[in-house]
Amino acid sequence: MNIDKDTYIRHEESLILIEMFKEENRARAKLVLETIESRFKVPSISKVAGDPFKVLVRTIISQSTAEINTKRSYENLSKKVILTPKGLAEADVEEIEEALFVAGLYRNKSRIIKRVSEAILKDMGGSLDFIYSDPLEKARRKLLRLPGVGPKTADILLLFCAGKPVLPVDTHVNRVSKRLGFVPEKAGYEEVRKTLETLYAPKEYFKVHMLFISLGRRFCKAVNPRHDKCPVRHLCPSKP
């Protein structure tokens, strides 16, 4: 197929513009991270990691639930039931519901926790230890086959517990990324994740995840964002 000179030039110019846009985003992304890191403390990963099954249970509880109620519900559950796949698979769902009452959607979460516990017992030998030894994509596929486990939950286990190079996207990370113009407004989970993973180095993924959450909770709120007080307002195309 013959391509005329003008078409070839326009194509090359488009590639150059795309690369320039990527470089501009990388530079701005670096400044964003440096700025919010100077404002918020990054917790030690050891404080949020640990046994992958317990992290899974806590992550399921945390969905659409404030952190204080997540903590209360998790503590209630740990007092009532042994937090192992066997312990939760054998527990009465009503007992789980009672523990999770302070969490949103507690009935649905209770059933998911029981079902995922049963699946881990039946299909995975009662353990999630494969996340340490399996390659990232293989481990991710296995986790996504579990009932109630979506991409965010899978990626949290892979990053927090196994140290895999993946950047989880929760509601705050998603909102902050879009308002900062790193991804289009209609971008789905995978586009947001993969874009952030190109903007930041793997060693920064945990930091980015936690700091974007802090920024989203404190300033970049879903309703009435605090643009005037936001520490990255000078880097944000969404400011009024």
Structural features, described:
This protein has helices spanning 5-37, 45-48, 52-62, 67-80, 85-90, 93-99, 106-123, 130-133, 136-144, 151-161, 171-179, 189-199, 205-218. The termini are far apart. Helices cover 63% and strands 0% of the residues. The protein is an all-alpha fold and 240 residues long. It folds into two domains: 31-44 and 167-235, Orthogonal Bundle (Endonuclease Iii, domain 2), CATH 1.10.1670.10; 48-161, Hypothetical protein, domain 2 (Endonuclease III, domain 1), CATH 1.10.340. Helix 6 crosses helix 7, helix 9 (136-144) crosses helix 10 and helix 11 (171-179) crosses helix 13. The longest helix is centred in the first third of the chain and has 33 residues, at 5-37. The protein contains 13 helices and no strands.
Query: What is the H/E order?
Result: HHHHHHHHHHHHH
The end-to-end span amounts to 48 Å
Derived from helix and strand composition plus strand pairing, the structural class reads mainly alpha
Total number of domains: 2
Tell me the Rg in angstroms. Answer: 21 Å
User: What's the CATH topology label of the largest domain?
Assistant: Endonuclease III, domain 1
Number of helices: 13
Helix content: 55-70%
Q: Identify the overall geometry.
A: globular
CATH homologous superfamily label of the largest domain? Hypothetical protein, domain 2
